[in-house]
Every structure is written in structure tokens, then in C-alpha cells.
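sry for the spam today, last one i promise. C-alpha cells for design, 885 residues
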């Protein structure tokens, strides 16, 4: 049987279904689905994504048989519509729309009104008895087609249009007459001829195939490629092409077009939320050229007449469809509709993009409404999206100078320096600056700058404008349609009333209220109760993996506990050494000439370390705490600047030269692989002894005086051979027993190691004999497995990721095929010699959703991550259980 390349939909019958997104793309699959549940969808057909894949495989040639299939399906549409494509009296017009598997907003261009030429336009005039409409439709087609298919700069025609309006002394497109549009069509076409060197195609078949080819071609345009890269969409997926008979929202005041969400995509509130324009064609709403009107007054923000008031019957019908769609898809939908002469048509539905806040509210509400179950509710919120909610919002008590107010398009509160172009945003962000991208409106060419910016501010466009939709998708703060500002790219400044804000000035955006403020306004931490709390309860019910945190201070420990951390997976002791009041003692210890000198200095440090541990143990209230003994090379603690060296020499009563010599002696060529970790503990055992003593004394005192049962987990870093661990473990046990005997207290302490060198992973069976637990230090393990220094990787790693040499930055997302295999081997080997050995991960990967899922799959007991990522890891751990594998 020959492959089927084209799927028909129309009049209640469809060959496709919603489940066929891979083949038909999201748009095509849902047009088919809506058709078969009897929603009013203009008939049409979908050319499959396989055709796109074949097209690129066969050096941009269509598979055999495609043309015939397209013609046959076009005939079916003609029959249903009672019109003929290219017919002079009764012409069928179509739209050609791209649609990939995953929605790619604004990435590929749609062509409307296709099939118009100098002959068929007469048929449209005869049918519609509206010459003005017919020529308006025609000129729109010429504009879109010449841009998308013929590659002409759209400004050239836009320019001619502007000149026409000037000439005729009118401001709006809608003030132009039929004669004006007719004249413009002719002018447009000759401009096309002049610029492209080719006649604008009159033959509707040529137009159709030109458009289909352009959709497939757009799959490989730079914007689409960038979007795919940012969203991890493989190029092999391809796009489908939808050819659909046109309906017109621009045939008069009983016509309209709009977009809506079945619930508020910003807050998740359960009311019908949308915008529409009377007498307009689809692209007018998205382009943000005219200010759209609300479909209803539920949230009462707009003064403009609503669709509910203006077109009550169509509105009620749309409300009915809203209900049908939510029951059918069991998720919030993002829809596009058009009303032609009082008749409603559905043009698109898809699961709506939403903020994290909305995702949680919608999931919790839909479970309460009985639409979905708890597990589905948990899966509805993506772990990486949660990040948005875990960040600060504006401090309600902070003083703020509000410049103006736009639409609250995507929440969050951010400050940064004003820039006006996407390239600038990217360049400034590269050198570590925080910037706000300010534009009149954004377009797909700005994606890279939007990505680099902290937030986006536009002066034009609605809640469904490009800027708003893309920012919400990225989880980025956005204030859109801020009409109160006047952006001047030429002078690189914007005006708000009488205030001028220049490039480089700092402003603050509040994407939840739409406010734009002068200067940097302070923020407060996020709220973790309400719906968030309910969702996290479900999350904890389903996950197996425990989530701990990396914390070095009582404050961080407290924050992490509030985020739900179940212990500390990594407490780095060296951070405590840097504090102003102790660095002197630490330096004294490092620079001491002999054991005696070192012990004298260590005696000064021990009460401070003990105090640190008491603070942390107290916050963690008996939850496990893994403490890593000193890890970095000693010279990291020494002064580098001449004046600091002199000051230290003076206080140590040695000559600056003697001190310089000592510092010189401690210098290493490759400190990451140098005298650090357990190598220090073996050459200066008194350092580790002091730390173990501080840990155990803190634990004994709290157990004795405050009644917590504390289980310290003493962790020895950078072990490569078992003998290192064996000796250090013996030392540690000796100290532990001594301390416990002194206090007369028994503590269930553990002694384990970090697995962060490939040799340790490969000999994990031997190492496990001496270790009560393993904690995978996947930062160093990534460095040592790749032979890649993280500190030096900035010069080439971004290139590696951009050019697909690596799928992702291995320091962000665990390299499962390489580093991950070492982790897996070490787990398996470790278990062979120590049954039930405790296994965890403490690298930064512990807060990366896909890495967390990997850790679950290989059977780790816990992950540990920074406090702010704890809820993300908890949710990812629940997803690991619930997603079908
Ligand atoms: P995108 O994927 O960028 O949203 P669409 O294919 O949905 O592009 O089309 C853009 C706009 O054109 C939509 O707002 C839609 O309403 C309008 N449109 C598409 N096809 C038709 C049609 N057959 N009749 C009327 N309007 C259409
Ligand atoms: Mg659309
Ligand atoms: Mg390390």
C-alpha cells in the first residue's frame, strides 16, 4: 500500500485524530479532532510531517503521488464548500498554515486568502457584493505571499501603503476605499516584480504549491532553528501543512476574529479569557496593530465593549464550545476563532501555554472539579517551570516610582539596564549584565534577545501578542502593550510622560501587575502555601526519591527546610573558613611551619566550626546532615594582593618575603587535580581530626542538651583508591569514639565518601567496604570524566552546545551516557560489597529535572540541590514515578 500523505477534515468527518500530532502536527490533529466532535471548523486537509521529512531527505523534492493526493482532497473541499479553487465566478480561497508537533508560536508564517488573482477577485466581489472587502483581501494576500514565499522585505509594501494613506489624508487602514485597495494591489504587484524580478503568480495552483513549499522551507529558517534549539525540539520532527478553506472576519461589523483561553493563562483563574477584534482578519489580533477588545468583562479591566455585549449570540455559542473543549481535552485550551457574518468558526485549539502559577492553579482546580486525577494533576506542572514561582516578587512595602502601566503579560519582578535591541540584550547578558529589553513590539527575530534579558517591555500589543506569548513560554517577566511609553530607537531612549529613560538606565518590571518602575525595587521571597502547598502534598505522596539540600549555613538550611528539604546532602566546611573573623586563624594554620603551629591555629578554629555545626544541626532538627571535610587546595585561602600579603606578614610577625615564598611554594599548576580533598587529610591529619571533633562535639552537645537524635554523615572527598579512605576512616572513628566517650553519649554517625573521580567509580566495590554511603559529586565527576575544567570551559563549551557537539551543557544536565554510566556502575558495584549502601548525589545536577529522573531510575536514595531548587527536584522525583516509561 502506498503511503498516505494527506488527511482530510470537514463537515463532521475527519481522517485524523488528536492523538496523531506526530504525523499531522498539533494544529492539523486538533482541527481534525474538533471537526469530528462536530465543532464548526472550515473544511480542509493536512499534509503530513512525513512529507516534510521526505522533502529534506530527497534534496527538497516531494514524494511521488503527493500532488495527486492534494488535488483529490482539494476537490473534496470544493464539493463541501460549493466553490471551486481558481473559478472566476465562484472561487474557493484557502489558507495555508504550518503546524509542527510542538507549538512554535509565530515561528512559521501562515498565508491567508490564497487563490486570489485579477480574475477570481471579480468572483469574490460578485459573491460578497463588497468590492472594498475583496480588494482588501487581495492586497493582504499579495503582502503575505510576497513576504513568505517570494522572500520580499515586507517594509517595501508597508511603505507604499503608508504613502497611500498620507496621500489620501487618512490614518487608519479601515479608512481606505475599494479604489484605494485596488490601486494598491496593482502597485504592490509591480513593486514585487521590480524587487524580486519575477511576476506575482496569477495561477492559483502555482500559488498553492509555492505556499506549501514555503511552509516546508520555513522549517529550516534561522528563527525556527533557534526556537527548536532553545526548546529541545529535534529537526527530524518536521512540520505539517494545513490547507483550509477561508472564512472571513473582515466582511463588516457582524464579523470578528479572536483568540481566547478557556482559563486565565496568567493566574489560572477559572473564567473565560480572551480578546477579539470586530471586522478584522486573524493576523490583526496577534500582530498587535489595533488594540483588541475583551471577550467579556469578567475581570473588568478594559473600557472597550466586549464580545459578550456586542455579539451576545456568538459569545454564548463560544462559551458552549469552551465547555465542550475542556471536557474533551481535559486541559486548558488556547483557541482561535473567526465570526463571518454572525456565524462562528473554530480555527485552532491547543493546550494553552501558562505561567507556573496558572499551571498549579489549573491542575489543582481540575482535580477538584473531577476533570483529572491527582497523578495527572502532578504531571500537568513541569518541574523546570516551577522555577518561576520560587523566585522573588516585588516587596509590597518597598517605595517605588511607577512610570507607567502596561499589561501584566508574564509574572515575576525583575530589574535591569534598559536596552533596545535583541542583539544588545544578548551582548550585555554575555558580559554578565542584567538587562530589560524594551521594544515597540517583538517579532520572532528577537527571540535570542528575549532569552538573554531579565524581562521584556513593549509599548504595543495585547496579552496574546508575540512578546506576551513567547515570554510566558520562557517563564520570563513581561509587561506588554504599555501605551504610556514612547520608544525611540534612534535616540536609544523612551519617554514616559515627561520622564526620559535612556539606554543603560535601570528600571524594574512587575509582570504580575504590569507596572514599570524607575530604578531597582527590592523584592521578597515567594509564597509557598495555597495551591502550591496542595500540589506539593500530592507530589510527596507519589515520589520515592528523597530530596536534600546543599547548605553551608543555618540560614540556608532554614530556607531549604521551608522548601521541603529532607536533610543536607552537602555541607561544605571550607565556606565557613572564609568569614572575616576566622580567615586569619585559617591562614595561620596553613602557613604554620610545623605540627605544633598548626595545632595552635586549629585550636582557635575548632570552637567556630563547632558553632557552625550546632546552628545547622539545630535547623535540621534531626534530619540527616552530610558534612564534607576540607576539600579545596590550601592556597585558595591565602592572600594574592601585595598589600594583603604585607598586612598578614605583619600580624604573623614574619617577613613579607618569607610569606611570599610560602605562598609561592603552595602554588599549583592544576589545582583541581592537585593537593586537595582527602590528599590534604592524609598529609595534614590534624585538620580532618579537628573537623571531625567539631562535628561530633556539636552532635553530642545537642543530643545531650536539646534531645535531638542527630545522625552526622562525615564525608571524605576526592577518594581515588580505597586505601585513602581506609586510613582516614580509621582516624575519624578514633576521634568520634573519643568525643562520644568524653560526653557519655552514643551517636549513630556514618562515614562515607564522595565518588567524584572515575577511578573511585570503577573500584566502588572495594571502596564500599570502607564507606557507609556514597555521594556522587557529579560536578567534579563531570570535569574528570570529560577531562574538562569547568572554570576554563566558558571559552568553548557554549560553542559545543550551539553546534550540537554536545546535546546540553554537561554541568547543567547530567551526561547520562557517560558520567551517568559511571554513577550507575558505582552504584551496582557498591551494592555488591555493602548491601543497602546509602546512595545520593550532591552535584548541581540534583536540581535539574531530567537528571533527577535519571537518579530515580538508577535507584539512588536521594538527590541534593540548592535550596531554591528543592521543590523542582521534589516534583521531578514524582514525575519520575508517574511518567509512563
Ligand atoms: P499561527 O500558528 O502563527 O497561529 P495560524 O495558522 O493559526 O498561525 O494562522 C494565523 C491566523 O490566521 C490565525 O489567527 C487564524 O485565525 C487565521 N486563519 C488561519 N486560517 C484561516 C482560515 N481558513 N480562515 C480564516 N482565518 C484563518
Ligand atoms: Mg494560530
Ligand atoms: Mg568536588
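last one done:
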Amino acid at each position: 500500500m502506498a503511503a498516505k500523505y494527506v488527511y482530510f477534515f470537514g463537515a463532521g468527518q475527519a481522517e485524523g485524530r488528536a492523538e496523531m500530532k506526530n504525523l499531522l502536527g498539533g494544529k492539523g490533529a486538533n482541527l481534525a479532532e474538533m471537526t469530528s466532535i462536530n465543532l464548526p471548523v472550515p473544511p480542509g486537509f493536512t499534509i503530513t510531517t512525513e512529507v516534510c521529512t521526505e522533502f529534506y531527505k530527497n534534496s527538497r523534492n516531494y514524494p511521488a503521488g503527493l500532488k495527486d493526493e492534494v488535488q483529490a482532497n482539494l476537490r473534496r473541499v470544493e464539493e463541501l464548500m460549493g466553490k471551486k479553487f481558481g473559478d472566476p465566478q465562484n472561487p474557493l480561497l484557502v489558507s495555508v498554515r504550518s503546524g509542527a508537533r510542538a507549538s512554535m508560536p509565530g515561528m512559521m508564517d501562515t498565508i491567508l486568502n490564497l487563490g486570489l488573482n485579477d480574475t477570481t477577485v471579480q468572483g469574490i466581489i460578485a459573491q460578497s457584493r463588497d468590492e472594498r472587502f475583496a480588494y482588501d483581501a487581495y492586497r493582504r494576500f499579495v503582502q503575505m505571499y510576497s513576504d513568505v514565499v517570494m522572500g520580499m522585505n515586507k517594509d517595501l509594501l508597508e511603505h507604499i501603503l503608508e504613502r497611500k494613506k498620507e496621500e489620501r489624508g487618512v490614518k487608519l487602514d479601515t479608512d481606505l476605499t475599494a479604489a484605494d485597495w485596488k490601486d494598491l494591489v496593482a502597485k504592490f504587484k509591480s513593486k514585487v516584480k521590480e524587487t524580486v524580478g519575477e511576476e506575482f503568480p496569477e495561477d492559483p495552483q502555482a500559488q498553492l504549491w509555492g505556499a506549501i513549499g514555503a511552509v516546508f522551507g520555513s522549517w529550516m529558517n534561522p528563527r525556527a532553528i533557534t526556537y527548536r534549539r532553545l526548546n529541545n525540539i529535534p529537526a527530524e520532527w518536521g512540520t505539517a501543512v494545513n490547507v483550509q478553506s477561508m472564512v472571513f472576519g473582515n466582511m463588516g461589523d457582524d464579523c470578528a476574529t479572536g483568540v481566547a483561553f478557556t482559563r486565565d493563562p496568567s493566574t489560572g483563574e477559572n473564567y473565560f479569557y480572551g480578546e477579539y477584534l470586530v471586522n478584522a482578519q486573524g493576523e490583526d489580533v496577534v500582530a498587535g496593530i489595533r488594540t483588541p477588545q475583551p471577550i467579556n468583562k469578567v475581570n473588568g479591566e478594559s473600557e472597550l465593549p466586549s464580545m459578550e455585549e456586542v455579539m451576545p449570540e456568538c459569545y454564548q455559542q463560544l462559551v458552549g464550545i469552551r465547555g465542550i473543549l475542556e471536557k474533551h481535552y481535559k486541559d486548558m485550551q488556547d483557541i482561535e476563532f473567526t465570526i463571518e457574518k454572525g456565524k462562528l468558526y473554530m480555527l485552532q485549539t491547543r493546550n494553552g501555554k501558562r505561567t507556573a502559577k496558572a499551571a498549579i492553579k489549573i491542575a489543582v482546580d481540575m482535580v477538584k472539579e473531577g476533570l483529572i486525577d491527582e497523578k495527572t494533576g502532578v504531571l500537568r506542572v513541569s518541574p523546570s517551570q516551577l522555577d518561576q514561582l520560587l523566585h522573588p516578587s516585588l516587596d509590597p512595602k518597598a517605595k517605588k516610582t511607577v512610570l507607567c502601566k502596561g499589561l501584566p503579560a508574564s509574572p515575576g519582578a525583575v530589574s535591569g539596564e534598559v536596552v533596545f535591541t535583541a542583539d544588545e540584550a544578548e551582548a550585555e547578558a554575555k558580559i554578565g549584565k542584567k538587562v530589560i529589553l524594551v521594544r515597540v513590539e517583538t517579532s520572532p527575530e528577537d527571540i535570542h534577545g528575549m532569552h538573554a534579558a531579565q524581562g521584556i517591555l513593549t509599548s504595543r500589543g495585547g496579552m496574546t501578542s508575540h512578546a506576551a506569548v513567547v515570554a510566558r513560554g520562557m517563564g520570563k517577566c513581561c509587561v506588554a502593550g504599555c501605551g504610556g511609553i514612547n520608544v525611540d530607537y534612534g535616540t536609544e531612549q523612551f519617554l514616559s510622560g515627561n520622564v526620559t529613560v535612556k539606554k543603560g538606565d535601570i528600571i524594574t518590571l512587575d509582570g504580575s501587575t504590569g507596572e514599570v518602575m524607575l530604578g531597582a525595587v527590592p523584592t521578597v521571597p515567594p509564597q509557598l502555601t495555597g495551591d502550591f502547598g496542595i500540589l506539593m502534598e500530592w507530589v510527596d505522596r507519589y515520589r520515592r526519591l528523597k530530596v536534600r539540600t546543599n547548605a553551608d549555613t543555618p540560614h540556608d538550611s532554614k530556607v531549604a527546610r521551608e522548601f521541603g528539604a529532607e536533610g543536607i546532602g552537602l555541607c561544605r566546611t571550607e565556606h565557613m573558613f572564609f568569614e572575616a573573623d576566622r580567615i586569619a586563624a585559617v591562614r595561620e594554620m596553613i602557613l604554620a611551619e610545623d605540627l605544633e603551629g598548626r595545632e595552635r591555629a586549629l585550636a582557635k578554629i575548632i570552637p567556630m566550626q563547632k558553632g557552625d555545626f550546632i546552628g545547622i544541626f539545630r535547623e535540621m532538627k534531626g534530619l540527616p546532615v552530610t558534612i564534607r571535610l576540607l576539600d579545596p587546595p590550601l592556597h585558595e585561602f591565602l592572600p594574592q594582593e601585595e598589600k594583603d600579603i604585607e598586612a598578614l606578614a605583619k600580624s604573623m610577625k614574619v617577613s613579607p618575603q618569607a610569606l611570599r615564598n610560602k605562598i609561592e611554594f603552595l602554588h599549583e599548576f592544576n589545582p583541581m587535580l592537585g593537593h586537595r580533598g582527602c590528599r590534604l587529610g592524609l598529609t595534614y591529619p590534624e585538620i580532618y581530626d579537628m573537623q571531625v571533633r567539631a562535628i561530633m562535639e556539636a552532635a553530642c552537645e545537642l543530643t545531650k542538651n536539646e534531645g535531638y537524635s542527630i545522625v552526622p554523615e562525615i564525608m571524605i572527598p576526592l577518594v581515588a583508591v580505597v586505601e585513602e579512605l581506609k586510613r582516614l576512616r580509621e582516624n575519624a572513628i578514633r576521634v568520634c569514639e573519643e568525643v562520644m566517650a568524653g560526653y557519655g553519649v552514643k551517636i549513630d554517625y556514618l562515614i562515607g565518601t564522595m565518588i567524584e573521580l572515575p577511578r573511585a567509580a570503577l573500584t566502588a566495590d572495594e571502596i564500599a567496604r570502607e564507606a557507609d554511603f556514597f555521594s556522587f559529586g557529579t560536578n567534579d565527576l563531570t570535569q574528570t570524566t570529560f577531562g574538562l575544567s569547568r572554570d576554563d570551559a566558558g571559552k568553548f563549551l557554549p560553542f559545543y552546545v550551539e553546534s550540537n557537539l554536545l546535546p546540553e551543557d554537561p554541568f547543567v544536565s547530567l551526561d547520562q551516557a557517560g558520567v551517568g554510566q559511571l554513577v550507575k556502575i558505582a552504584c551496582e558495584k557498591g551494592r555488591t560489597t555493602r548491601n543497602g549502601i546509602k546512595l545520593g548525589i550532591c552535584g548541581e545536577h540534583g536540581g535539574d529535572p531530567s537528571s533527577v529522573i535519571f537518579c530515580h531510575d538508577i535507584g539512588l536514595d536521594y538527590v541534593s540541590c540548592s535550596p531554591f531548587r528543592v521543590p523542582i527536584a521534589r516534583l521531578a522525583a514524582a514525575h519520575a514515578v508517574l511518567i509512563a516509561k
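The longest strand covers residues 343-351. ok im logging off now
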